[in-house]
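Bench notes, afternoon.
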Amino acid sequence: MRALRWVGVLGLVALPACSPGTVRISYRPAVGEVVTYRTSVRAVTVTRIGDEAARRREASSTLTARHRVLSSGAEGAEVEVRLSQEGVAPSTFLVRFDRAGQLVGVERIEGLPADALGDLGLSEILPASAAAPPRRALAPGETWEIDEPVALPSASSAARVTGRGRLVALGVDGGRRVARVDSRYRLPVRQTAGDTGGRLALEGSLDTAAVVSYDLDDDQVHAVESRSTGRYAVTLLPPAGVAGVAVPGTLEVDVTATTRRAG
């Protein structure tokens, strides 16, 4: 669960409103821009495999994500994200976002192939980018449908994030003018991880509720609060090419995260 929520922290800019009381939000970072976010994460997992007793695990951590914009243009932006946590070696991600702030690709993790992302739990945070508001002018109370394709690392097929977003209010938080957006969406998950030491097949869905405050005075996200819950059917498979019996089970996850801009 190390990498939870960094994708949800994108720099966005409020464009001139089309009419009083409305805002238009789009992803337009400047090349060389550097922003740091701090995220507090609490994750609870309950695993049941075969006839074994359920295993419950609870973990809390604080992550620091440093975003540096490498390129930005009409098609979107390329951003380097350096994720650090006390007692854990830093991870560096090179990711691409389109003009609407949707995540469209992961180029590398410190030279590792993109499918290694699955071991870091990134499949649980990819929907955060799909919850970005539409580019049209929005007024408080206005809603929109979320229906976006998502390419998951280690996934056997493409998935679509579906749900609904709402512009809750325009206001002030800590002296900053912000737009508060409430989004709820579901991500189907179907993937297999592992190889020589055994494989684990996962199938189910992750439901996320997130509240994001977009800063209207500059081009950054001000704060994010989110909770993701999921239940998956799990199958423990023998290593590839080795005969063996598949063992069924279940996995339940409950992840809460609070992110705030740190600099």
